[in-house]
Amino acid sequence: MWLKEAQAECCEIAEPLPSHTECFVPEVCEELSQLQCLHDQQFIRRRRIWELAKPTRRVPRFTPFCPCKLKKPIEIIHLDKRENTRTEQLAYPTVRRLMLFKKDVAKLFDPYRLVNLNRIIRKSLLSVYSRLANIQPPQETKKITKWDKADWAKHTIILVKLAKPKKTFEEEKPASPSMPLKKMKRYKYLALPKKREELEKPVWTLTIVMARYKASDRTKALAKPTERDVSQLHRELPIEIPRGVLKHKASKRTIELSEPRRTAKAAPSDLKENAFVVSPTALTHKASKRTKELAEPREYENKHIRENPFAISPTALKAKAKPRIVELAKPKGS
Fold first, then answer.
1. Helices 111-125 & 95-105, crossing angle to 10 degrees?
2. How high is the pLDDT of residue 65?
3. What is the pLDDT of residues 39-59, one digit of tens each?
4. Which region ranges are annotated with the description Disordered (predicted)?
5. How many other CB atoms sit within 10 Å of the CB of residue 80?
6. What is the mean pLDDT of residues 304-320?
7. Where are the domains of the chain?
8. pTM of the predicted model, to two decimals?
9. CA atoms within 13 A on the CB side of 80
10. Can you give the chain as a three-state secondary structure string?
11. CA 326, CA 328: separation in Å to the nearest integer?
């Protein structure tokens, strides 16, 4: 049976059981029926669970075709009729090459040969691949004629019209109705400042209900002032330490926390009774020549204070002024 006559998705394909498992089929069927009865009695059916419980259909590598025939009729092609195959479509030369060839050979070929060439160009234009590429047939170029004085006159009239600015057609707003100020009494009333009435508190008077009112026990208890024990604030010195505190033994963690924090680079603490006492070795020590040289004060040349401030150096006496310095030295206006 041909592939065109069969429809693969119309019938489900069942996998055949192997030969050595056919003897267990009746026992497996009985157990399945029992399990199905138990399942129907014990479990609630849900659509989603039943959909997930269905096994996925395994499609083998080679499957037999279904005998069901398609509804679409089969086209019969005769042996004499030629098919439009892919190779035939690709065999046509490109339209651009044919057009260039036609341009070169237009004067050399006979008209009969040019007819055949036009037929090949038409076929290549109507092929599948040229239609997919959207190749358009060649168009004849029209000669551009020169304009006369009448054409230029028409053109100038159109240009003058287009050069004018566009008119803005604004809608005329209707005049809003107005009244004279003399007739507007409401505006005068609204223009006056707002007057606020001052609320006076009424004088407090003892009413009959307030005179006959009896306070409850809870109200009386809340009305009393709080009395605090003053004896706890002032204690006699020395303060007595309870026995439980004296007998208490600190834990290891408490002892660890009570120790001072050790920093990485701690300065050595001077634990001497008198830190300024000079040791006997320092008194008997003899300084070296280098130490004595370093101990002597350095002498600096004082350039600020001069012995003769008005003295001129020999280099200044020999110096010659430049013409630019002479120009700058002259007073203004000279």
1. 170
2. 54
3. 777 666 677 887 887 777 656
4. 284-307
5. 5
6. 83
7. 1-72, 86-132
8. 0.22
9. 0
10. CCCCCECCCCCCCCCCCCHHHHHHHHHHHHHHHHHHHHHHHHCCCCHHHHHHHCCCCCCCCCCCCCCCECCCCCCCCCCCCCCCCHHHHHHCCCHHHHHHHHHHHCCCCCHHHHHHHHHHHHHHHCCHHHHHCCCCCCCCCCCCCCCCHHHHHHHHHHHHHHHCCCCCCCCCCCCCCCCCCCCCHHHHHHHCCCCCCCCCCCCCCCCHHHHHCCCCHHHHHHHCCCCCCHHHCCCCCCCCCCHHHHHCCCCHHHHHHHCCCCCCCCCCCCCCCCCCCCCHHHHHCCCCHHHHHHHCCCCCCCCCCCCCCCCCCHHHHHCCCCHHHHHHHCCCCC
11. 5
For tokens 């036609």, name the residue.
102
pLDDT (tens digit per residue) in 267-279: 565 566 777 888 8
Tell me: pLDDT of 33 over 70.
yes
